[in-house]
Amino acid sequence: MNQQAKEHILHFWTRNLVEKPGAFSFNLFLFLSFGILYSFRVLQSPFILLVFGIITPVILTICLYHMSGVSLQHLLPKVVHKKTSRVFLALLDCSIITLLGILIYRDILNFFFFRFLQTVMLPILYLIMLRVLLLSENH
């Protein structure tokens, strides 16, 4: 209990998202199914774009940058070693994700490639990278 009280909230979210194989598989299935439905315009809800295309990738990006500062310091570039540079890169990535989502919503970049990238590829890649970082931290 004492260690859980000191655990950072982003590390807690990461563990809940990807630590157990069942939760990881469920999240992969959820992101893949809603992302594909949105990408192929089966469900054209702005809510799906907001949740699975903007909010989720932003949260996963923040968790990924936090985990990169916690584990695998010796394998990552020196840019990621300082907390200020990690925060700056995370803000840059989050702003790009948000801008891309807004451009998709406004029908400026509402093409299959961008919808697929925003709602399927980014969340799936981020989940896999978080899983690898978390498993490498535990071993």
Brief digest:
Helices cover 78% and strands 0% of the residues. The protein has six helices and no strands.
Task: Provide the low-confidence segments as ranges.
Answer: none
Q: How would a crystallographer describe the biggest sheet?
A: none
| Class computed from helices, strands and strand pairing | mainly alpha
Question: What is the number of helical segments per DSSP (H or I, 4+ residues)?
Answer: 6
Q: How big is the Rg?
A: 16 Å
Helix proportion? over 70%
- Tell me, briefly, the overall form: globular
List the helices and strands in order: HHHHHH
Commentary on this structure:
The protein is mostly helical and 139 residues long. Helix content is 78%, strand content 0%. It is built from six helices and no strands. It has helices at 2-6, 9-18, 21-39, 46-70, 83-105, 112-138. 27% of the residues are buried. The model has no long low-confidence stretch (mean pLDDT 88).
Keywords, please?
78% helix, single chain, 139 residues, mainly alpha
Ordered list of secondary-structure elements with their pairings:
Blueprint lengths: L1 H5 L2 H10 L2 H19 L6 H25 L12 H23 L6 H27 L1
